[in-house]
Amino acid sequence: MDFDVTVIGGGVGGLAAAIRAAESGKKVAIVEKDQLGGECINRACIPSKTLIDAVKLLSKADKAKWIGKGSNGELSLNYEALNQHKNEVIEKLRGNLKHTLDKYGVTVIPGRAEVKQEGEVKVGEKVITTDKMVISTGSVPISIPDFPLNGKNVLDPWSAMNLQSVPPKVVIVGGGVAGVELATLFRSMGKEVTILELMPRLLPVPGMDKDVADAVKSRLEEKGIRIILQAKSKISSADEKVRFHVETPSSSEDIDGDLAVITIGRKGVTEGIDLNSLKVNVDKRGYIVVNDKAETSNNKVYAVGDVTGGALSATKAWRQGLVAGDNIGGKQSKMPKYMPLSIFADLEIGSVGKSIDDLKNEGIEVREITVKMESIPRALTVNEPQGFFKLVIGKDGRIHGAYMVGEGATEVINTVSMAMELSATVNDLYPVTFSHPTITEVVSEAVQRAVSGEMY
Ligand SMILES: Cc1cc2nc3c(=O)[nH]c(=O)nc-3n(C[C@H](O)[C@H](O)[C@H](O)COP(=O)(O)OP(=O)(O)OC[C@H]3O[C@@H](n4cnc5c(N)ncnc54)[C@H](O)[C@@H]3O)c2cc1C
């Protein structure tokens, strides 16, 4: 046997599984046909956040009256330098990963893996024998008939983010996480941005709080982004310009853009892996079915990350990879109860737990405590008083959910996620002290209000 474990796909899910399994003494190989780090590091989370964080500095500086502007009253962006910065961040993270894999003695095998039967992985002409395997082959954007990608001006998110220069008018299809983040990016670069969303609200993501979604919509509109909800749209032509025909319950219009970014439509990658002969079950959309230990229907095969469907997020992929690696290494490990979601929009969003509507539908009695960010001193010192934090509490004081829109929401939400995973009640959290002045004090304030009264 060449390896105890062979991991197919070196994205965040596969890397986590490989590192954890190796850490517990297993002989591990990871096969990657492109670059280590997969979507998240090379094409999605990291490049998008590097660009968004950088351009948000512009909007922050723009609204800061005390910052001097050029003679035309505007700040300027050197997009070439920014792209260079983005590439350096990606390189650095890829280097860190390679270092960790080397440290744990994981063998990296470049090439495309094919699997025809259990226990064997073929890479090029070479056949590797392995006891267990982890399928972590991710997902890819697909071209859908109403929005055919053309590699020119109808692009998937990564291709759009990788353009050397972005044209003036951008139309984004999909008002989900990627749509909202890309709208933030392009608008902060001064582009005219329209979002077309089929559903009646922005961010139609499971568990998303309606008030948060509404607040995000208002903020993006304030920034000049046009958002069309309940938009049944299709591309009618894509030559020099991309023309959309858009129907809503109350209107019908044609919208032209120089660039269309299609954020909807992905599928799991399983080409070359004979799931039938492996006796690995898939769901009706072709995603591999796993339990909360990342086990498939074949006890020699684990699957992690986007290829298992559900939330397509690096947060989940990484955790599922750790769970698979731990279980392979003999440690009992399960997926957590809560998976926080962070969205890096113009005003950040953090969410964990179920939405109030979902909880009510399940017959769970809850109450909510809402704290406006304008009452938190740090939100004023950083000049970002918009937004709110909402804590959803059960009768027994247990926290069922937390939602935030505001500066630092993507960090704050992890604090609550930790408390929820540990089943802490508001009474447990009451004596916990947060340093001052910090944005996280909003959690403390909500807890104080739940147990006693208002402090701020
Ligand atoms: C624009 C955008 C922004 C995003 N931002 C965030 C974010 O901020 N936070 C977040 O949590 N998530 C984010 N995501 C989602 C996140 O990128 C993915 O959920 C995550 O990368 C999935 O990781 P994975 O390991 O499952 O798969 P991938 O990262 O797709 O890795 C799979 C790897 O497998 C390799 N592979 C496939 N088939 C084979 C084969 N046969 N042989 C060898 N190698 C193979 C591929 O080359 C790839 O490297 C974002 C997505 C997009 C599109």
From TrEMBL:
InterPro entries found in the cross-reference section: Class-I_Pyr_Nuc-Dis_Oxidored, FAD/NAD-bd_sf, FAD/NAD-binding_dom, FAD/NAD-linked_Rdtase_dimer_sf, Pyr_nuc-diS_OxRdtase, Pyr_nucl-diS_OxRdtase_dimer
Keyword field: FAD, Flavoprotein, NAD
One Pfam family this sequence matches: Pyr_redox_2
Residues of the FAD/NAD(P)-binding domain: 3-321
Name of the molecule in the record: Dihydrolipoyl dehydrogenase
Single GO BP term: 2-oxoglutarate metabolic process
Similarity-based family: Belongs to the class-I pyridine nucleotide-disulfide oxidoreductase family.
MF GO annotations: dihydrolipoyl dehydrogenase (NADH) activity; flavin adenine dinucleotide binding
Domain Pyridine nucleotide-disulphide oxidoreductase dimerisation: from-to ranges: 339-446
Listed SUPFAM superfamilies: FAD/NAD(P)-binding domain, FAD/NAD-linked reductases, dimerisation (C-terminal) domain
Keyword NAD: yes
Keyword RNA-binding recorded: no
